[in-house]
Structure prediction request, 149 residues.
Amino acid sequence: MSKINLKNGLWIMVADGEKALFLKNEGDGLYPNLQLVQEMKQDNPATREQGSDSPGRHNDGPSAHRSAGEDTDWHRLGKERFADEVADRLYKLAHHGIFDEIVLIAPPSMLGTMRKKLHKEVSDKVQAEIPKTLTNHAVIDIETMLQAA
Prediction:
């Protein structure tokens, strides 16, 4: 990964499957000062708390044998939907000229899902992608990690 230019006005999006933080650097490369601009949250309980039925069953042909279908992973689907919502929000912000450059920080699976959904207007502004989960870290820790990157 190349050195991140933490210039004034750089946006940083820190997300996981349930929470996204949109931060803006009010400082500079030597002394970053990340300020929270917006936060998105999604209530995404575990699959066992979302599903109500047992997996379906289907016939395996002319015999009396039946097989169970795979249970739906509602939690994973919720994370994918949230990645779509974050990508849509990034598009709206970029389209309105709110940011010129942005750094995306999220777990690898979310980055992959978002990358497929990002509009060209957003992907052209992505300075770097960092595959880490940092949503529950203090902003000062995120600043330190970005300086080291």
Q: What stands out?
A: The two ends are 8 Å apart (CA to CA).
